[in-house]
What we know:
Helix content is 20%, strand content 34%. The protein is of the alpha+beta class.
Amino acid sequence: MPDPSHVARPHMPGYGVVAADAGSGLLPWTWVEEQLTATRHCWVATTWPDGRPHLSPVWCVWLDGCLWFSCGVASRKARNLDVDPRCTLSTDDPLNPVVVSGSAEFSASPSGTDRFVDALDDKYGTTSPAALRDPGVCATVLVRPVSVIALRTADFAGTPTRWTS
Length: 165
């Protein structure tokens, strides 16, 4: 999780962003966690081996200070992350976005996968198929945030906040 003491306005020239003590001020980390917990979907951006961007939606869970999602082990996301684990995820609310950049890790722990799938089922009111717990079929991915940027459109110039590790 980014260090809560490493918080400031992001550099956004030309957007009229005000000083950190103006507008609504810096957003609290608790607001970010509320958004990450509540988001229905995240968009995950990875990089093809040739450098092209790849973007796709995933169901996600905020758990233990990380964003977790799953994908097929042979999926483009998994293959991209296997080559370059750097990625960025965004919540699905364009009016109150939270953008998380970090490094993806494939969970090697069956207990980690079980905790993720249980949290996923609780969040979405589903019963996941057994394949989601099978590391030969599905990869459980967690992203440890290195930087997070968030803002509220209702006070666009007065809320942009960035946390870094």
